[in-house]
Amino acid sequence: MSREICAETGLLATQACPNLTTETFTEGSEPTEYCTVHPGPPLQSRGPSNRSVANPPDEAPAPTEHASVP
């Protein structure tokens, strides 16, 4: 899983972090605390990467066709 990290602290990035890096972690090894040097709200658009790429959370799912049952 990938996370946006503050390049200075190695903690989860906030909107106030000036230098970000994307790092890949094995599950359970990722940081769980947000940057304390650059306090601010968590990044909204760059949250956890375990979302479905086909249906991002701010998009409605594609309509599906269902066969009519006689």
Can you characterise this structure?
The chain is mainly beta. It has a domain at 1-44. 0% of the residues lie in helices and 14% in strands. It has strands at 2-6, 20-24. A two-stranded antiparallel ribbon has the order 1-2. The protein is globular and about 60 Å long. The termini are far apart. 11% of the residues are buried. Mean pLDDT is 74; it is low at 45-60.
**Count of separate DSSP helical elements:** 0
Give the fraction of residues assigned to helices.
under 10%
**What structural class do helix, strand and pairing data support?**
mainly beta
Strand content: 5-15%
Strand line-up across the major sheet? 1-2
Largest beta-sheet characterization: 2 strands, antiparallel
Question: What characteristic shape results from the CA principal axes?
Answer: globular
SSE string, helices as H and strands as E: EE
Tell me the Rg in angstroms.
17 Å
Distance separating the two termini: 46 Å
Low-pLDDT stretches: 45-60
User: Could you give the count of β-strands?
Assistant: 2
Identify the quaternary structure here: single chain
**Overall mean pLDDT:** 74
Give a brief outline of the structure:
The chain has strands at 2-6, 20-24.
